[in-house]
Design goal:
Number of strands: 7
Shape: globular
Largest sheet: 3 strands, mixed
Order of helices and strands: EHHEEHHEEHHEEHH
Helix content: 25-40%
Radius of gyration: 17 Å
Structural class: alpha+beta
Distance between the termini: 26 Å
Oligomer: single chain
């Protein structure tokens, strides 16, 4: 049996512990600034237009944001208090059907009708309480990695494509399993990862359409 090669943020970055004070939380977020998903929507949140080649990519308060042009980037900054809520709502709606767990990834408690849908660094986490959100933000690397593993376990058997969404190459035993926006993305090899990250929303949409 050939083992699959998993890509998770925990294997790419070295995790550094911080104490659980507010100061420690701030330090942890600085230490792990690259933990999180690339912007996974295929449209500009301001215009609704597809994100074509040459779109603007920038960081806003620890998360990646993509818009169609420099004018939209300026407008986003001016209207961020509104636009962030719009992005979070879109991400939660898009990712909820793919969420792999029925228990809180932080506390282990069952997710009831009062569960919290928290979008953190472009990833939806379904949590049992506000205290769980605090813990999530103290150790983002751990919980992103744990959720990645749950997504891979849940979605591998029913993955809808036999070929790489980026390259069109056949997915063999050495295919790479990657997770973005609570979706499994199977890539033919490492060379496809850079191309995928140029426009994640485009390729995620291809995978969804194949289901």
């Amino acid at each position: 049996m050939h083992s699959k090669l998993f890509i998770t943020f925990s294997t790419i970055l070295t995790l550094v512990l911080a104490n659980f004070t507010q100061q420690g939380l701030q330090a942890q977020e600085i230490i792990e600034p690259d933990i999180g998903d690339p912007y996974p929507l295929e449209i500009c949140i301001l215009t609704g237009e597809p994100l074509e080649e040459g779109h603007e990519v920038f960081n806003y308060e620890g998360r990646e944001v993509r818009v169609c042009c420099s004018d939209c980037k300026s407008k986003f900054t001016e209207e961020a208090y509104i636009r962030v809520d719009e992005i979070n709502a879109s991400l939660a709606k898009e990712q909820k059907p793919f969420y792999p767990l029925k228990k809180c990834i932080v506390t282990g408690k069952a997710l009831g009708s009062d569960a919290l849908d928290v979008v953190f660094r472009n990833r939806l986490f379904c949590l049992s309480a506000s205290d769980a959100e605090i813990e999530l933000k103290k150790q983002p690397g751990k919980y992103f990695a744990d959720l990645d593993a749950a997504v891979i376990e849940k979605q591998t058997a029913a993955y809808p494509l036999k070929t790489c969404a980026v390259s069109g190459k056949t997915l063999g035993d050495d295919a790479i399993d990657h997770v973005v926006a609570n979706q499994l993305v199977r890539l033919a090899d490492f060379d496809q990862l850079t191309a995928f990250n140029e426009n994640p929303g485009k390729y995620l949409a291809i995978i969804r359409a194949a289901k």
